[in-house]
Amino acid sequence: MKSNAKSTFIEMLNKTIDFSIDFVESKQTLRAGNLSSNVTFKINVHDSAFYASFLAAGNLGLGESYMAKRFEMVEGSLEDFLASLLACRIDKVLRGSLRSTLKIVPYRLQDAIKSRGHHVRKHYDIGMDLFSSFLDSSMTYSCGYVQDETDSIEQLQINKFNRIGQKLELTPGERLLDIGCGFGGMLIYAAEHFGIEGVGITNSKKHFEIATQRIEQKKLNHKIKIEFKDFKQIDGRFDKIVSIGMMEHLPRHQYANYFLLIQQALQDKGRALVHCVGANTFKNDHDHFIQKYIFPMSNQPRLSEITSQIERNDLAILDVENLIRHYGYTARHWRDKFNLNREALTGYSEEFKRMFEYYLTCCIAAAQSSDAALYQVLFMKNHASRIRLHRV
Q1: Chain mean position to CA 162
Q2: I want to staple 76 with a disulfide (CB 3.0 to 4.6 A). Which of 41, 48, 227, 299 is the partner?
Q3: Considering the entire predicted model, what is its pTM?
Q4: pLDDT tens over the chain, length 392 residues
Q5: Residues catalogued as catalytic
């Protein structure tokens, strides 16, 4: 079946991609894709299971092959290779071709009948040393904002915090609620630079403990605090509400309650901003590698799912932006910093490190070439409130 998998894989690429790839295995070279073009990528295949794995599971199979060192990039980067595959929409081509689908079915069936343990998600005990290895000093694990292409990872997050504060028109003394506050970066920045008071809520014990420590270190206890609880336990009223990187982790059946609670917590003239990874397409096809290894059960909401909930709660939409290209810059900083520090991560296996590198590289590629989105949606409670003439 391995030789059949190889020929089916090459045939698929020949019909799909507009660039060329040389696959080198046992000193033999197979060229695939647009044979009249110059070689764009050269890949050493160390294990022929690489071909069947890709056919069986797409990006999940490719990622697991990278983790297992079944292949190695010789010419061209992994980042560009993944972006080029995404740009050619290989998965969509396969779904639309009955002939191709029939050829791939045997490999997908073979994958499906493996033991249940084959599909069980590995539960890694991820520690703070991993997050510290690739995040900025505020420990912000969400997309930054590029003012200049040379911005550091620190500056990207400062830009993002400042821009959100300007969009919300934060002013001294206002009460800000941060739903899913992470390690408290946005709340701390808003207290220091906009003079707000406020509350961050998180259902992560680790986030709660570290964010609280950071607030104490900065002597901001009199202005802001972190509460360890679920978003469904929100109480009190707030002038402004922000939620960054939270909505994509909610099951879809909770979207209605999420926006209802925001509406109820907003003061009459209040504003809110939701920042989340989304899907810029009618159908949200989950990436199985991310689902299995990184964010189980995560969603990427469509813009229509966000705006319909805002409308149902009689809230007024002020501004919508898709910042997905900014995610590419953010994830590249994360990936490069992770690779600089990976040798110091002694408590993690090489397979785990390759998995995490592949994940961050997928984020870069997806920001360039996929139908992913990064939405910031700004809205207010009172339709008669003042609206400035120009966006931030």
Answers
A1: 21
A2: 41
A3: 0.89
A4: 456 889 888 888 998 888 999 999 988 999 998 877 777 899 999 999 999 998 888 899 999 999 999 999 999 999 999 999 998 887 665 555 434 444 434 444 455 444 433 333 333 347 889 999 999 999 999 999 999 999 999 999 999 999 999 999 999 999 999 999 999 999 999 999 999 999 999 999 999 999 999 999 999 999 999 999 999 999 999 999 999 999 999 999 999 999 999 999 999 999 999 999 999 988 777 788 888 888 887 889 999 999 999 999 999 999 999 999 999 999 999 999 999 999 999 999 999 999 999 999 999 999 999 889 999 999 999 999 999 999 99
A5: 363
CA angle 346, 350, 355 (to 5 degrees): 115
Give the DSSP H or E segment for 330.
helix 324-341
Contact 251, 299 (CB under 8 A): yes
126's tokens: 């991820």
Query: Quick one: which of 338, 369, 372 has its CA closest to 136?
Result: 338
